[in-house]
Structures are given as C-alpha cells and as structure tokens.
Amino acid sequence: MGNSEHVTAADVQLMQDLAQRVTAIRPDLVNSDASFGELAWNWGKGHAGAGASWRRRMWFSGGIPVAWGWVHLPRRVRMNDGSVKDVTGAYLAYQVHPDQPALVDEVIDWYDSVAAGLERTVLPSAADEFALNRWAAHGYRTDPTALGDDGCWSQLFERGLTEVEEAVLPAGFRFRTADEAGPAAAVQAHLDAWSPSPYTAESYEGVRQTAPYRGDLHILVEAPDGTMASSTIMWLDEVNRTAEFEPVGTHPDYRRMGLARAMLLHGMRRARAAGATHVTVACLGAPGHPQARGLYEGVGFREVVRDAPLIKSGLAGRGQ
Q: In 71-90, which positions are buried (b, 16+ CB within 10 angstroms) versus exposed (e)?
C-alpha cells in the first residue's frame, strides 16, 4: 500500500489532504505535526537541511491516502550561532484516518523497523484511545521526561472568528506582511525570536515553495527603528475554512509589550477576510512554558486536545 522514501513536496500535499479530511470529522484526532499547517511548515523549513534523515511511508485505499508515517532519524543540526546539536533518537509524525484504525499497527511496525535500535518517540493525540492502546501493545510507554516541567509536547487551541477585537499596537509600531518586508526581514524576524535556530534563507525559500504559503498571511510587526519585532505565518485551509498560526515569535527585546497579542488579533481579521471561520494554534503544554498558553487564552483560544508523549527504548527494538 506504500513504500519508504524521502519526503517530497508532493508527499506533503497528500498528507495535507488526509489532514483536511480528518479535521472535517474529528479534529481532535489530528496528531502532533500532522495538521495542514504544521506539515507545510515542517517540510518547508527543514527539507533542505534535514531531508536526508527523513523517511516516509504512505498507505492508500482506492488511490486516496488513508495513513502515513514520517520518521525523523538521527542527524546533526547546525544552529545560526555556530553551535551544533546532535539528535540521537528517532521521532515519528503520523496520521491514520479514523475509518482505517487497523493501520495503526502497520504504522507502528514500519516505524519499529526503520528506527530499530534507536530510542523512539511519538506524539499521538490524547483523544485517540484506540491508537494509544495499540502503541502500548507494541511496548511504547508514557515519556516521563516529556511530561516534566520543560517537556516537549503541545496543546492544540481553537477559537471562532465571529467577533475579533481590534488590534492595537504601541505608538510607532506597524503591521507588515512578508510580501512587503521581503525575505531578508522575514528570516531575521524568525532568527531573532527563536535563536539559536537552524533556520536560514534557504529554509524560508522552502517555506515559500509550499503549496499553502501566502506572503499576505505572513504577518510581521515592525518597530520604530525598523526591527521586525514579532512575526507569524498563517496557513489557510480553504476546505475547512481554518487558519493555523505557525510559528508565532517575538524578539526578546520587544516582549511584554503586547505585540504578539496585537499581531494575533490582526492576523485573525486577515484570516477572516480570506475566508476562515476559525483559527487554531499549538503551543508547548509543559508546566514550564506558561507564557504562550496565557497569550492564546488571553485572546480567546480554548484547548481542543493535547499530545500524549510516548517513548520506546532502543533496547526494546533489538531483534525485531
């Protein structure tokens, strides 16, 4: 029903097709990194530098994608500050259509074969009881490190766009789009907000090449001195009339000024004008990361679902 290769732009569009169909019926079953916007963002920014370490398999029924897996294997990541990060374990992003639950076992078996001998992590939806039971049957357990204060798992938030308050910026600040500001400014805005980061001009070019990217929905806040102090990209899913914020970041020197709040409200109005009826955003859910949750809840977002971080040791995969 599928094969194992590197991840291409065409693959991502097939994955997005499945994301749209699952979103339409059970948005709470869309797994971490498997949403319409996350797929475009992760592939766009990462394929040039990390694509050689990616593997994927897809399952089809009647020519329509019903499941896929995207494995991130060990790699060396070079940051913009000159530092290097060695990723030693494997991570799986995946999605299975709710009407094909038995494919979860095939996805798990494939993951275990591709990443045999490595520590393996995965972030299924906490609402997917069937899948959680199947992962447990294959030896995956709750990841205690991920559930710590600084753990890496996310919550999905959503809100409607019937009423959106007006965005207000401090005096001298103004909204820009990436179309207006240009690539160099858009890249620098991301690096300033997220440094150290592997993001580069080449990463941004990959993002721009993804099918759903729109420069008019890539919003920045320009400070009086010309610095792009805050930025976000909105990914418009026209099928479900949803816009997804990913990423959202602010320069450290300009935090606690209300810029991100104003940018989100401004983005919501632009998304509504583009046809969206609701917006989503995912943020880190661990106790040590309360700022983003407070920001999103403060502009009307409410939690839909959260990740269930799971792990399997490398020793558990030997001999399979």
A: bbbeeebeeeeeeeeeeebb
Summarised one tens digit per residue, pLDDT across range 19-48 is 999 999 999 999 999 999 999 999 999 999
Q: What is the 3-state secondary structure (H, E, C) of the chain?
A: CCCEECCCHHHHHHHHHHHHHHHHHCHHHCCCCCCHHHHHHHHHHHHHHHHHHEEEEEEEECCEEEEEEEEECCEEEECCCCCEEEECCEEEEEEECCCCCCHHHHHHHHHHHHCCCCCEEECCECCCHHHHHHHHHCCCEECCCCCCCCCCCEEEEEEECCCCCCCCCCCCCEEEEHHHHCHHHHHHHHHHHHCCCCCCHHHHHHHHHCCCCCHHHEEEEECCCCCEEEEEEEEEECCCCEEEEEEEEECHHHCCCCHHHHHHHHHHHHHHHCCCCEEEEEEECCCCCHHHHHHHHHCCCEEEEEECCEEECCHHHCCC
Q: Nearest-CA neighbor of 271 among 312, 299, 297? A: 299
d(CA 306, CA 116): 27
pLDDT digits (tens, 9 = 90+) for 174-222: 999 999 999 999 999 999 999 999 999 999 999 999 999 999 999 999 9
Q: Rg (Cα) of the chain, in Å, rounded?
A: 19
As to burial, measured by CB atoms within 10 angstroms (0-12 exposed, 13-18 middle, 19+ buried), residue 314 is middle
